[in-house]
Amino acid sequence: MLMSPSASAAAAAAAATTAAAAAAAAAAVSLRMAPLQQQLQHHPQQQQQQQDLQQQQQQQDLQQQQQQDLQQQQQQQQQQQQQQQQHQRVYLSCVYLDAS
């Protein structure tokens, strides 16, 4: 389905928002984990477990953001479909009035 310029711009903005949110989430996780990483410097196994947990958290944050973006895109598509249906109704009404 072709997207209008405004829908394309909205999709691009959503993608940029996703990237910014993912970067912010990664930074927030890093800030939360920094004190723990300092404590775990002398415990390589615990440090690896902590890094694994941090990576899982980042993946969950990214998945959540992607899900929100997908929902936003679906809402935009629904709005476009509703607008197209409304335009069709108006057109058909005009055709009917012209014919009568």
Order of helices and strands: HH
Radius of gyration using CA atoms only: 24 Å
Question: Can you tell me the residue ranges where pLDDT is under 50 for at least 5 consecutive residues?
Answer: none
What gap, in angstroms, lies between the N and C termini? 34 Å
DSSP strand tally: 0
Would you tell me the structural class of the helices and strands? mainly alpha
What is the count of DSSP helices, taking H or I runs of 4+ residues? 2
Biggest sheet descriptor = none
Mean pLDDT score: 80
The proportion of residues in beta strands is under 5%
Shape: rod-shaped
User: Roughly what percent helix?
Assistant: over 70%
Summarize the structure in words.
The chain has 100 residues and is mainly alpha-helical. The protein has a domain at 63-100. It is 91% helix and 0% strand. The chain has two helices and no strands. Helix 1 runs antiparallel to helix 2 (44-99).
Key words describing this protein structure:
100 residues, mainly alpha
Gist?
The protein is mainly alpha-helical and 100 residues long. It has two helices and no strands. It has helices at 5-39, 44-99.
Task: Give me the secondary-structure topology.
Blueprint: H1 5-39, H2 44-99
